[in-house]
Amino acid sequence: MKYALIALAALTVSTSSLQAQPAAKPLVGNSNAPIGISADSFQADLNAKSVTYIGNVIVTQADMKLRANTVKVTTVNDKADKVTASGNVVVDSPKSGIVTGDSGVYSVVPRTVVMTGNVVLKKGRDVMRGMQLTVNLATGQAVLGGGVKSQTQGNTQSGGRVQGVFLPNSQ
């Protein structure tokens, strides 16, 4: 269970630390801070080696917060292997901004996070949109892929492009 909580914290840290970082410096937060989890219900599946938090899930560590409808943690050899947050996923960090998406998966061993489905990154008044965000925690590299819906003469079309709005002199 201890490893499950550490993995949840890593998901929170990773998806909210999307500002430019030196490639050699991994994305890290205060991983020693206590982790708090609340949900409407909790299920453990000993055969599948997983735990699932269901309904209004809130995971906090230091000043970062993850919200989702469901958070599932699977283990391999009694260590967290994958953390999956699904349904209205929101990761909020005062330093890095807010990332939202339909789902997010943190894979522990490769140290990668993939947010999918209507991904929106906001920091201050700056906004980026895409359909998939992949973050490598070891290198600090992030890639946002397209698929954003665009308005063309009243018709919504699949544009397949990343969109961004950056306001000069915004905080």
Q: Your description of this structure?
A:
This protein is mainly beta and 171 residues long. It has 1 helix and 12 strands. A hairpin with a 2-residue loop joins strand 7 (112-123) and strand 8 (126-136). The radius of gyration is 16 Å and the shape is globular. Mean pLDDT is 77; it is low at 1-28.
Quick summary of this structure?
This protein has 171 residues and is mainly beta. It has one helix at 2-16, and strands at residues 35-38, 41-45, 50-61, 64-76, 79-93, 97-107, 112-123, 126-136, 141-145, 149-152, 155-158, 163-165. Strands 1, 2, 3, 4, 5, 6, 7, 8, 9 and 12 form a 10-stranded antiparallel beta sheet that branches. A two-stranded antiparallel ribbon has the order 10-11.
SSE inventory with pairings:
Blueprint: H1 2-16, E1 35-38, E2 41-45, E3 50-61, E4 64-76, E5 79-93, E6 97-107, E7 112-123, E8 126-136, E9 141-145, E10 149-152, E11 155-158, E12 163-165
Which properties best describe this structure?
ten-stranded antiparallel beta sheet; 58% strand; mainly beta; two-stranded antiparallel ribbon; lipopolysaccharide transport protein A fold; 171 residues
Count of distinct structural domains: 1
Mass-distribution shape: globular
Q: Stretches where pLDDT falls below 50 for ≥5 residues?
A: 1-28
The secondary-structure element order is HEEEEEEEEEEEE
**What is the number of beta strands?**
12
What structural category characterises the helix and strand content?
A: mainly beta
